[in-house]
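Dear Dr. H.,

I hope your travels went smoothly. While you were away I took the liberty of generating a structure for the chain from your last submission, since the lab meeting agenda had it listed for discussion. I wanted you to have the full record in hand beforehand rather than looking at slides cold. The sequence, exactly as received, is reproduced here:
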Amino acid sequence: MFDGDLSDQDPGVLTLLTRQRAVAEAAEWSALLRYSDARRATLTESATDPMNAHVARSSVAVEIAQATGLSEAQVVARVAIADRIRSRTPRTWTAFQTGLLDAARVREISAAVERLAHPESVTRLDREVLDAASTSTVAELRRWLGRFIRRVEPDQSTRRAADERARRHVRIDHDDDGMSHLYAYLPSIAAGAIERRLHHDARSLPADDRTLAQKRADLLTSWGTCNTDGTPAPHTDIAVVVDADVLAGARTGFAESADGAWAVPAAWMQPLLDNENTFWWRILRDPVTRDVLSIDHLGRFAPDQLRRALLFRDGVCAHPGCLVPAWACDIDHVRPWPTGPTRGDNLVPRSRRHHAHKGHGIAPPRRRTAAEALLIDLAVEYAVAR
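The corresponding predicted structure, in token form, is as follows:
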């Protein structure tokens, strides 16, 4: 063992201590393996039937975990790795015992052995890996092992790649504090392209108070929620539930998704509400009774459901005398957005020509609604009858 005679500034001290640590790890793993082998053999001999033998052998991991402070899963993993390396890659096992390799590198080699299909490939790995493992970091060794596997067993590697490609998916895990994890399992060529584009585009953005990592995150968010022209992508409507007093600023609170899976501070909504291309539904509820008070759409453009309702309601352009079908009209705010809400009582279909007139300050008279027309007709009939 190191006795402390070397200078504290001599890097050889660190090399020696690293070697001693690796030897200690190997001694521990060897002891785990010997104990496991011996206890499993003893319990198997004393068992009365195969089922009892299986149950008894499974208890060995519990015994080792209690003695070492490791979890049962850690014990099972270490014993399995030690047994695989000892039995299938003897040169690697010897290098581990003498401190040439540490436990971290042995784990990587064991994982590679599991992926190899042919015994001759494992023998070749055992013969070639020591030079790479002894001069590489763990990350460099992992890459070397990947290249080795693809080189010696290309057919098997291709089949595994096809199987894994079939498992591609995206998962979102919602955490506390208004944040979520977006996990994507993608073909490496696609992930590499995304990585390069994120890096390039983020570095091309104007300097501001965001870090490069934050810019990358913001870019990915934009790509996932908007079309190339900045308009919302289809099916990105978001419903949030906000207490009325929170939205009014009377107290601090959160905006919660309709399904309750996530929540964000209500203040985080403001930039989204200010974006005219974002579709947001706001559900106001009473803070005490939890009753829904109102439902508003907070974007500039009417979503499909509201637009369809307007087409059915009005039928034609809101300008008096204009018979352009509502489906061929623009949806116009009577009171301009964002002062005027995107809500049925503030929206009318207006032909492109009459919409332009309004935009240039030519205020046309408002077409009477069906209810108003009915009331006027009734008033006329009453006057005539008198």
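Two observations you may find useful: DSSP finds 15 helices and nine strands in the chain. Residues 169-225 form one domain.

With kind regards,
E. W.
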